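thought: fold this chain, then report.
action: predict
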Amino acid sequence: MQVRVLHPPHMKHTIDLRKKPTEAKASSKEAKNFKLKSREITWHAPSFYYNPQKRYLASIIIALLLGAVAILFLQKDTLSAVFLIMSSLVLILYANKRPEINKIIIDDYGIRVGGNSFLFSELRSFWIEYMPGENKELSLESKKWYLPYVKVSLENQNPLEIRSWLVSFLPEREHEKSLVDLISRRIGL
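observation:
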């Protein structure tokens, strides 16, 4: 295939696109040997928010246990009492659980949190919750119905840098905090 480039009459040149210059051959060989490295942002963060002060949680556990005793003796309802006792035991076990430190990686394909991977194609949007003096948190809205939001602590990462990275892959939409999130933060879970 020949392409004729129109130049002034004194400069007539024909470019043959089938013939590659030797410089282009050398650069294509270098390109094959060169492995492209994708960019990524990496940091370590706890798997969930941990609040060592659990005074509200202790009072909720005590209230559940007192309610169980009252229901058992006053109404003779064993099933409800057992349910309240089991609920308080679950809260006690969860309150003593320490967060694991996960490695978080954001690259051109998605986000990895510990052993879990979230591809950008599996996510709907993101939102960065940042109030000075409080925890910085990245919220990812998943397309999966059973996992609506994934929350990731940003720790000491720059939220603007992470936002500038994610905005090229996902739409940015504010995620409302659920009632469960607000209550669990308030009582120290």
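thought: worth noting. Confidence is low (pLDDT under 50) at residues 1-7, 29-36.
final: tokens above.
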